[in-house]
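Exercise 3.2. Students should predict the tertiary structure of the chain below and write it as structure tokens, then compare their answer with the key that follows.

Predict this chain's 3D structure.
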Amino acid sequence: MSWRSLSIVAFDTETTGFFPETGDRVIEFAGVEFTVNPDGTVAGMVEHQYLINPERPIPREATEVSKIRDEDVARAPLFAAVAEKIHALLARSITIAHNYPFDQRFLTAEFAKCKLKWPNPPAEIDTLDMSRRLYSEAREHNLTAVTQRLGVSLTGAHRATNDARACGEAFLEMVRRHNAPDTLAEMIVWADGVGDPPNTGHLLRGDGGVPLFATGRFLGQPVEEHPDELGWMTLARERVDGAWRPVFPQEVRDWAERYLRVRASGRNPQNAKGFGPMDWGIDPPVGAR
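Answer key:
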């Protein structure tokens, strides 16, 4: 299947802070849905944007970044009112985000309050990771730097719709410039993303799209609950005919490694966003270095 035949949704969130675990909430969600022609050019674009009442005051620092104030969201719906729409949008699409783990963690926490799980879309791709891999010589990989490098327009940064649109266009430009493979499975590997587990009998998609262990001591349990087991699967060896060989096929080990990277195992998911202008991609003051 060609990935170009599927809906592509670049998404972004604005939040009250960095840590959903300690009560920070989403105040804006945007998903920009792209359809593309067989040659990769954009055939259509639909914007899905929601201001959201976080049920708590928005800190001054967050307002300085997004310009979203308490009065802007006072009459906005709660996340629960739009959760099903956001969930359905992500579930059916190739999903793209810049610093994917940050936005995913917030949305996962918001979904959990509504008794929903992360939708596990067909592909999860991080343009931050793509930029780091494709332009390893570059000093900066925030969204402003990436769009400038690629000649993609980004106006009104730090509002979710503007950032999401620029993120999606940056993805498509990197795909075009670097001749990404056409099939969905090969493109996911090329982009260092995560998609369906390989069909080897070791992992599978369960009800609701959640990846599960199909063998072993965690049979039937979600892989996200046992990252150490996934790590072990990438390293496990057994002795056969006097020689050591991997227990699991290469495609399983590759999938597990990519899954752990995308799910932020071993790296700080907040690392790319801070309240400093350089962290968020805001143009630095004149004379700043």
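Discussion points: Residues 203-261 form one domain. Strands lie at 8-15, 26-36, 42-51, 94-97, 123-126, 203-205, 211-213, 237-240, 243-246.
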